Structures are given as structure tokens and as C-alpha cells.
Fold this protein.
Amino acid sequence: MSHTAHIPSHRKPRRSSSKLALRAGVAGGVLSTIAVASGAGAATADPVTETIEMPTLSSGLSAAVTQSAEATQQVALDLELQAQEDAAAAKAAQTAKKAKAEAERKAEAKEKAEAKKRAEAEAKERASRSSERTTLSAPSSSSNATGSAATVVAFLKAQLGDAYVMGATGPNSWDCSSLVQAAFRQVGIDLPRVSQDQSVAGTQVGTSNLQIGDILYWGGAGSAYHVAVYIGDGQYLDAANPSKGVVIQDLSGYPASGAVRVL
């Protein structure tokens, strides 16, 4: 290509003045049309007769916050009241527990004191009986029946109040035959151990002709189930049963089957 050839320009070509004038006219027409329509619409619009007031958001929010605060305060008051009630209940329970423990301690102390007093009384009674038995342990020097019978009865009366225990032989508990055997041992008479043998150990006598010191029995001779000693005035002394122990009873209430005399 020749260096003198024409080089096209890169600048945009200018728009013609006729085109610009055309576009300006169109735009102006459109704006005029809009203005006319707006004026017509404004002239025919209905007048505003009422105003719609929108609710105020801030006032509703304030009421909600107030209600929430009141609810929170009520919950706090309820929790405080419950805590006070729980504390009062715990204190009352602790006080009751202490009072119960103190009452139990006093009751235990009282029971121990009473037990000690009973033990001392029983020891004193046993000592008194032991003294009486020591005095009566030697056989009477009198050889007549009256003296021996008195010794037997004195020994028996010294055992009043002792317990009845089957098979026991003293000194504080007896059964019927062991008490009779021990009583006659005081005057040197060695009787058999059981009631069946004691019922035939001496001379049979009628119950209408009794003397102090006679051995009474209930049941058949040789098969007696209970024995006692006649002490005069229609009475006898025996180790009766577990509920009575050693007692004095009337023959009229429990008549004997028979009697034997060994003195």
C-alpha cells in the first residue's frame, strides 16, 4: 500500500443534526402527553374524606415489655416464697428430730434407772432369803413332829414369790416336787425327786385328817402329777405354775386327791 494512501479514522462519526432534531421532537411529545394526562387525572380525582391511622408500633412493644417484666417479677417472688417455705420446713424437721432424740434419751435414761432400782431390790430380796435359808439350813434339834413341821413350813414360806420353772431345783426357781424335796431336806428327810414317787413315799392319810407338814398330791398314788405341803388352816404351799410361781392357796379351791405323812 502506498504511504500516501488514506487511513480511516477510529473516531465515531458525528450524528446528523436532522436525526437529533427528530429525537428531541419525539421526547417532547411524549412528555406533553404525560403532563396532559396527569392534569386530567388530578382534576377528576375524588377528594380525601378520611385518614387511616396506622397503629403505633412503639406503644404495643412497650406494653409487651411491661407484661414480660411483671411476669418475671412474679416468678421471682414465687421462687423466693417457695425457698422460704422449704427453709421453714427443713428447720421444723430438724427441731422435731432433735426433740425426738432428746425424748428417746430421757426415756432410755429413765428405763436404765428403773432397771437399776429393780436389780437392787431383787438383790436385797435375794440376800434376805439367803440369810433366812442359812438360818434354816441345819436340821432342827427337836425330834418331835411339830418342830420338824415348823422348820419345813418356815423354809417353804421363805421361797414365796420364787418362779416356777419345770425341772428347776432352786434356789430362786422351782417345780412342785423339787420345792417339796428341798423343804424336807431341811429336817434330814431325803425324798424322791418326782411327784409320782413322792405320793407314795410315806404313810397314806385321808385329806380329812391332815396335819401340818403332810405332803398333798393330785392324781393317783404313784401317778400323781402335782404335790404340795399342807401348812394348816385349810391351806397349802406349792410351786403352782409359771404364771403364779411359789404361792399359798386354799384347799377349798383345788382339793387334793390324797396325802402322805413322812414326819
Residues 216 and 222 are 13 Å apart (CA to CA).
